[in-house]
Design brief:
Residues 3-71 form the HTH gntR-type domain. There is one protein chain. The longest helix has 18 residues, at 2-19. Helix 2 (31-37) packs across helix 3. By secondary structure, this protein is of the alpha+beta class. It has helices at residues 2-19, 31-37, 42-54, 84-91, 109-115, 154-158, 161-167, 187-192, and strands at residues 58-61, 65-68, 74-77, 95-106, 122-132, 135-144, 173-184, 200-210, 215-224, 228-231. A 6-stranded antiparallel beta sheet has the order 4-5-6-9-8-7.
Length: 244
């Protein structure tokens, strides 16, 4: 019974937060107030609040209470190697991919250095905007070695390139090195994204390798500042014989 009650409290408040009924920064009722409202114990309420906290809906401040977090920011894992479609499937929001370019082009000096090839060597270049809830807020610029990826069908560029690479070309993608920085927006950012008055943008650079360690893809993913946060989970290792 208690499990049903704290699940009910969790579902109730997560729905209110997701719908915007409870806005970011708003303080939610205390444990005793919630216990009275739901005719349950404070222990049961505490479990529901812990679930809300663990799933990014609230932040608990000792001595002050629990406050609603900004859920309009979309979580992108830092350490994971995951496609936009896989992230989008988890968001439950209206999304669209707009393909601006999908062609074989001479490699620029900057990209050649990142892919460890000679300047002007041909690379597959795919430029796409990611539109979420009617706003273009991510610009993805992907570069692939044609020796590994001979071509990229238009349908794959519009849907999921990784599904094509792994499902059709049977590539075994293994790991990526990531670099994250905040940089000034470019004229291309202004042209292809809905940036409003933002002067800076979050840039995530990915160097993607196959299982044989071959670097075959370089991606520059440019994110509007107000919509995204990059998350990871870390646990401190406990040293044997050295109590905290």
């Amino acid at each position: 019974m208690n499990k049903n009650i704290y699940s009910h409290i969790y579902n109730d408040y997560s729905a209110r937060i997701q719908s915007g009924q409870l806005q970011a920064g708003k303080k939610i009722p205390s444990e005793s107030q919630l216990a009275a409202a739901y005719s349950t114990s404070r222990e049961t309420v505490r479990k529901a609040l812990q679930m809300l906290s663990e799933n990014g809906y609230i932040h608990k401040i000792k001595g002050k209470g629990s406050f609603v977090l900004d859920t309009q920011r979309l979580n992108f894992p830092v350490s994971g190697l995951i496609s936009f479609k896989e992230v989008a499937d988890q968001l439950g929001r209206t999304i669209r991919t707009i393909v601006y370019e999908n062609s074989l082009v001479p490699c620029s000096s900057s990209v050649s250095q990142r892919l460890l090839i000679r300047e002007n060597e041909p690379v597959w270049k795919v430029v796409r905007a990611r539109e979420i809830e009617g706003e273009k807020i991510i610009l993805d610029k992907d570069y692939f070695l044609p020796s590994v990826v001979p071509s990229i069908p238009a349908a794959a560029a519009e849907d999921s390139i990784y599904e094509y690479l792994e499902g059709k070309l049977h590539l075994r993608i293994s790991y990526a090195k990531k670099e994250i920085s905040v940089e000034e927006v470019t004229s291309e950012d202004r042209l292809l994204l809905d940036l409003h008055d933002y002067q800076h943008i979050v840039v995530v650079r990915n160097y993607v390798h196959l299982v044989d360690t071959q670097l075959f893809q370089y991606t520059e993913s440019r994110h509007r500042l107000d919509k995204f946060q990059f998350v990871d989970f870390a646990r401190r290792a406990q040293m044997e014989g050295n109590p905290l």
